[in-house]
Specification:
The protein has 6 helices and 14 strands. It has 217 residues and is α/β, with parallel strands linked by helices. The mean pLDDT is 94.
Length: 217
């Protein structure tokens, strides 16, 4: 691992994200790792990243010179995205990822693909309205009644639920088949899955609860 942290890590991408929200998330996850061009977003927010990881194809030389050399971790292989490089390189209780939605759709889809292929890495992607994360095999959540809870399979997976308006028991989910968007919370939510591959999508107001439930001790 290139970066080992005892506290949650903010992972910043190069996508659109307001400065004030970067600062808000840094209060929750104080270690700042930038994925390549995300370093520019960090500097715009007045924060020097603790580490920059990527192939550096989107980090201008003038900005690179503002960052100490020992914080620059160049990984030149082109078989993975900068986001995935960061997932492989960071060891932390939790990663909060900003700046990875709202830009190029192919980049955003690659982020969700990488999360599913690295299920041991606890990561929450934070967007302008929603958060998304790869579901562990079992998960308990306390959420406001009638709030939205969506499930989107990135592979074939089945599960069981309590606390949802429409239970998922026995449903064979698949990205080219049945999906579980726009479900609703009806009580304390308990989810279990028979394998990896399910994304959970919730309103951004659920971030604190999800952080508590996903953080690795």
């Amino acid at each position: 691992m290139l970066i080992t942290a005892q506290n949650p890590v903010t992972l910043l991408g190069a996508g659109p994200v307001c400065v004030e929200y970067i600062k808000e998330i840094l209060n929750l996850a104080p270690v700042l790792v930038a994925a390549d061009g995300g370093a520019e977003r960090a500097l715009e927010a007045g924060r020097l990243p603790d580490a920059v990881i990527g192939d550096f194809d989107s980090l201008p030389h003038l900005l690179r010179e503002k960052i100490p050399a020992d914080r620059l971790h160049r990984i030149e292989e082109q078989e993975s995205t900068d986001f995935e490089k960061c997932l492989r390189a960071v060891d932390a209780p939790l990663i909060l990822a900003l700046g990875f939605d709202g830009g190029r759709l192919d980049h955003e889809l690659a982020v969700y693909n990488a999360m599913v292929r690295h299920p041991a890495q606890r990561c929450i992607v934070i967007g302008s309205q929603d958060i998304a994360f790869h579901a562990p095999r079992s998960l308990d959540l306390t959420l406001p009644e009638a709030s939205r809870l969506s499930l989107f399979p990135m592979g074939r997976v089945q599960g069981r639920s309590t606390g949802l308006r429409w239970p998922i028991d026995g449903i064979p989910f698949a990205p080219d088949g049945r999906i579980g968007t726009s479900n609703e919370v009806s009580g304390r939510v308990r989810l279990s899955f028979d394998g990896d591959g399910m994304l959970v999508i919730l309103p951004r107001s659920s971030l604190s609860e999800v952080m508590t439930r996903l953080s690795r001790g």
